[in-house]
Amino acid sequence: MKPALPERGGSTRATAAATDRPPVLLLHGWGGSFRHTWQRLGWVERLAAAGYPVIGPDLPGHGVAQAAHDPLAYADIAHEVDRLVGHHRGVIGIGYSLGAKLLLTLATRHPDLFRQLVLIGIGDNAFKPLGASEALARALREGLPSDTPPALARLIADVRASGNDPEAMAACITRPQESPLTEAQLAPLTVPTLIANGTEDRFVLPQERLLAALPSAETVMFDGFDHMDVVGRPEVMDAVLARLNRELARSDQT
């Protein structure tokens, strides 16, 4: 019998002052949470100041101090996210890492869910099974060797600092893997999409295949940033907000 889905922190909403701007759905990555990723790094504050209401769910098993330790509990992670947010229509989606991949999955299932997409920390890895999952789980359980690459060490340190249950995060990363996305799934998507990556992101680059698969996508690259930098730096937030405002102005004129 497959275990029940793990306890989670519940959808968190931070609503801006009265505004006619569409809400922004924020999906964090593996090992993060709405609070640790979007609130702590300043995204919620910046979006609210610009007049965007925010919808911020925690992924299954994230955002709580204790969660399920069985990988099977996370086998339906995409379905659970769909259950939480798939009923929305006309929102802006901003996703980081695993959250970006889940946004794309949602977009293929619900073509009218999003009016804009911003995908941070995702590239051609979207078309591949998750790699090094056992190594990541082992690092959480046993620690890292002294010769660990700095980017990986930063990732594990961030997961440990997030307040999530480390064993639950190890279970989540070793869950039965959902099928990778395909070009055929993405080809019908016409939603305006921005892909934001750092030039030093060894986890997700290259990104040319993903760009070619999304007919309405463009990219912005941040020189010297790695996978962890690209979600937390003010320059990235500036670029994303400028893009959101520009696309809204364009849609208002049509």
Structure description:
It is a single chain. The chain is of the alpha/beta class and 254 residues long. The chain has one domain: Alpha/Beta hydrolase fold, catalytic domain (Rossmann fold, 3-Layer(aba) Sandwich), CATH 3.40.50. Helices cover 39% and strands 14% of the residues. The protein is built from eleven helices and seven strands. The protein has a seven-stranded mixed β-sheet with strand order 1-3-2-4-5-6-7, with helices on both faces. Strand 4, helix 4 and strand 5 form a beta-alpha-beta unit. It is globular, with a radius of gyration of 17 Å. The N terminus is likely disordered.
What descriptive keywords fit this protein?
Rossmann fold, 39% helix, 14% strand, disordered N terminus, 254 residues
Concise summary:
The protein is α/β, with parallel strands linked by helices. Helix content is 39%, strand content 14%. The protein contains 11 helices and 7 strands.
Contiguous runs where pLDDT drops below 50 for at least 5 residues? 1-10
Q: Kindly state the mean pLDDT as a whole number?
A: 90
Terminal CA distance reads 52 Å
The description of the largest β-sheet is:
7 strands, mixed
Tally the beta strands: 7
Radius of gyration: 17 Å
Please trace the helix and strand order, writing H or E for each element: EEHHEHEHEHHHHEHEHH
Question: Oligomer, anyone?
Answer: single chain
Strands in their spatial order, largest beta sheet? 1-3-2-4-5-6-7
The percent of residues in helical segments reads 25-40%
Classified in CATH, the superfamily is Alpha/Beta hydrolase fold, catalytic domain
**How many helices does DSSP assign?**
11
CATH topology descriptor: Rossmann fold
CATH 2nd-level architecture: 3-Layer(aba) Sandwich
